[in-house]
Design goal:
Radius of gyration of chain A: 13 Å
Number of helices of chain B: 0
Oligomer: heterodimer
Largest sheet of chain B: 7 strands, mixed
Structural class of chain B: mainly beta
Radius of gyration of chain B: 14 Å
Order of helices and strands of chain A: EEEEEEEEE
Strand content of chain A: over 45%
Number of strands of chain B: 11
Shape of chain B: globular
Amino acid sequence: DAKTTQPPSMDCAEGRAANLPCNHSTISGNEYVYWYRQIHSQGPQYIIHGLKNNETNEMASLIITEDRKSSTLILPHATLRDTAVYYCIVSSGGSNYKLTFGKGTLLTVNP
Amino acid sequence: GAVVSQHPSRVICKSGTSVKIECRSLDFQATTMFWYRQFPKKSLMLMATSNEGSKATYEQGVEKDKFLINHASLTLSTLTVTSAHPEDSSFYICSASDSIAGGPWNEQFFGPGTRLTVL
């Protein structure tokens, strides 16, 4: 699976949009981009995934560049409860796919 | 989303004893379950992939005789840490894939984790 690069930490003001970048320059054609987050001492939580097109759900939006070498996770109105480590993961999917977690980005939402 | 539970949530044991951790998918059937380990301030490391009715596939460097995995049903996988030592103290997390839902990808649902402390 392709590797990803994320900034180690970011800060965001409560109520503002949080934009978390991820580089995945070696992504291959059949690999999806997944985003998970982990709040302290809990299991990871799925946020969103995409292949080529931008995606939006009730939690976030995912913007994938046309060349698919990078993506941005957008939390439109960050709250204090969004403080967590956010992981960007690239994987080929399928019923037996593995998720390889990198170091992620620690997002701290400040009041 | 689907719910995955783990039991116990926290366990403290003496060195040399064995500890069993259960992972259950509560409202879906999981052909595949995954076991991860996370040390303090580190990322999750995949230990093994567990398929119902067959032997688990272990990642490189993970001792299969020390970390016994059983996936006897579509809703239950167990991880047994045998002869635990202090260096096995960690946060153990399982995930389950709702593979029956089909599609080109399958979301993994994670359990809340089990904190193991070996004295």
